[in-house]
Amino acid sequence: MSQSVGFNWGFKPSTAENISSAISTCKVTKPRVKRRFAGEEAAPGGCSSYNNRPRAVAKRRTAVSGIQGQPLPLSRALELMDRTQLQSTLLELVKLHPEIQSTFMALQPPSRGLDQYVTLLRGKLEQVYANLPFSRLRDRLSDDTSEGLNDYAFVRVKSFLLEFLNCLVDCLLESIPPQVQNPLHSLKLLDAATGLLSQLPHFSTASNNYYKNVCYEQVAEIWSTVIQQATQDISFLGATSTVLDWLQILQKHNEKSQGKLQKPLTLLQTFQEPLEPVQTAAGLSQDQQQPSNLWSNIV
Known about the structure:
The protein has a domain at 113-276: Methane Monooxygenase Hydroxylase, Chain G, domain 1 (Up-down Bundle). Helices cover 61% and strands 0% of the residues. The chain has 13 helices and no strands. Helix 5 runs antiparallel to helix 7 (151-174) and helix 9 runs parallel beside helix 12 (262-272). 14% of the residues are buried. Residues 277-299 have low confidence and may be disordered.
């Protein structure tokens, strides 16, 4: 059978190959329930997965009209904060950023006035008495502290008691050398702080007075340190009345504390002994004058 030139029976090979390749590239997938292609629509490239991709939808920015609120400036916020809020905020700030603690302490004044310390300590002491459980006993303790409080009262005021004692020691440590070079300022604060310490309530159980007794030991050491620093000052030793006055003050505090300040008292007495010959000579001169006066009266 002869073959005609340019004529072949059946489909052309090129057409069949294109159809088979197009069918093979298209995967049979389950039709989507949400949306189906219409008859007019056709997936690009013969694949339906192209239309399943999420399309980016452009969002229009709505214009905001009117005045919007804004936070206060830092200076105004500090003006509206009371002392407690400012103190708590500052402490939290230092805890979160410990590196600023040295900078904050460097900005503090080198010394504070005596009234500032006394006002702070007196406020802490008032908190102790304000939290006593019995009002009648509280009023009686302000005049007579011979009767001790029970264990329940100690539990009620323990936190305020420790706060007062810690504050007292902190204030004293800041007001002694080398922080403060004025020994008279240190002695005056010691006098005021020791007087406030003696006003703390006494408890019937000995163990409940432990913190107060330990604080007395620390205060006694501070007294001794300040006395040693003060006696190195020539002007302090030169003034006989000044040494005698502080000796009397320390004796009163020692009596109220039942001998807990005997160590600084003995130390001050040792520095007062060189001054006694001068006082003795003055006393002898007065005694020598008295017999003459008596004799003249007799005659």
